[in-house]
Amino acid sequence: MLIDTLRISFRNLGRKKSRSALTILGIAIGVASVVLIASLGEIGKYTINQEIDELGGGGLMISGNNKLAGIQLTSDHLNAVRTSGAVDSAIPVVVDYTKTYMRGLMLDAVIWGIDYGANQVISMELIHGRLITKNDVTAGKMVCVVDQNIAQAYYKRDNIVGKTIQLQFASGNVEFEIVGVVSSGGNVLQGLMGNFIPTFVYLPYTTMQELMGRETFDQIAVAVKSGIDEEVARTQLLSIVNNTSGVRTGFKAENMQGQKEKFSSILNIVTVILSVIAGISLIVAGLSIMTVMLVSVGERTREIGIKKSIGANRQNILFEFLIESFTISLIGSIAGTVVGVLLVIIGCLPLGIPVLFNLGLIGFCILFSILIGVIFGVYPASVASKLNPVDALRCE
């Protein structure tokens, strides 16, 4: 009897092929949407973590506690940090957000005042020219290194070594010679976060201090020696800089791993919210299943009456309609998953982006869509199973 019920259910789905296909399509679109969103969330977390590493996010950034007035980093703090056995290298960092001008155009940028050898702490892949040298820092030269985004924005090419660029300071615009172009990471972050992470320009920190009229640093970027736990190094370095200033909690050292986890947590929340929104389409598709099944009950009223009159009981009719709604949901879920996976692969491979999937969320989505189909199929199945054989046979 069970095999006959299954066979009849599948045969009934084939009676109205167009209607069944459209209902399956509704389920498939909802599932494919969730697969895409979940995969984009995973790819986003991976890419942002990679970008943070490329921006020098694998170490520590020491800075003053903004809640305390008068706490600033000086050369004494830098020298003390460099003497720590946990430090591989450390550079002073002076940061300013300003505007750049070339060829009558303007572009927002972050200016980084750095020391020579900064590429040991901040990943800077040199494309053209050279990096900041010891002589540049010692002499306070008016030279700079720009990232390739600036080069592309102003000249539509990477190599703009020898060109001049104007940077806006409080005292006015100052002209610098571009001595190098780098790919320093941040491209994906710039694309995702726009104005929050603009293009980068690197100057000798001494030049920047002179133009800004200051002797202090905003941060000290530290690369921790291999094999040393960053949390241990963080505690040690905080103790060093606090002791240098004679305070207890005047400074903070941010572990970039913690920043990665914050980004991942934010993306997880966004992914879940967007998945829930996409999941609403599954509920809509579930309603369409209920509608289709109710129409089917109306069309097959006489058939149901005949089945009941020759011995089919209520459970047989109920099970037959539930199998139909289950099958629609299952086929739609599988089709949507396959389409979603293919779209992710097709989108990632040409761009060289790793193909990643949130298998847990995808699996939950499939189960949820099947459950929705069965739940919304219960009412039509119940209606069909409760039909009186005599009344059903009267139906034309």
Structural features, described:
- This protein has 396 residues and is α+β, with helices and mostly antiparallel strands.
- It has two domains: 2-51 and 262-394, no CATH class; 72-246, no CATH class.
- Helix content is 57%, strand content 19%.
- It has 13 helices and ten strands.
- It has a six-stranded mixed barrel with strand order 2-3-8-5-7-6.
- A hairpin with a 2-residue loop joins strand 2 and strand 3.
- Helix 9 crosses helix 11.
- Residues 186-197 have low confidence and may be disordered.
Uncertain ranges: 186-197
| Relative helix content | 55-70%
Number of beta strands: 10
Number of domains: 2
Topology at a glance:
Layout lengths: L1 H12 L3 H38 L5 E5 L10 H8 L4 E16 L2 E10 L10 E5 L4 H6 L3 E5 H8 L8 E6 L2 E12 L3 H7 L5 E6 H8 L6 E6 L5 H16 L5 E5 H44 L1 H9 L4 H35 L10 H27 L3 H6 L2
Parallel strand pairs: 3-8, 5-7
Antiparallel strand pairs: 1-9, 1-10, 2-3, 2-6, 2-9, 4-7, 5-8, 6-7
Concise synopsis of the structure shown:
This protein has 396 residues and is of the alpha+beta class.
Provide key terms for this protein.
396 residues; alpha+beta; six-stranded mixed barrel; 13 helices; 57% helix
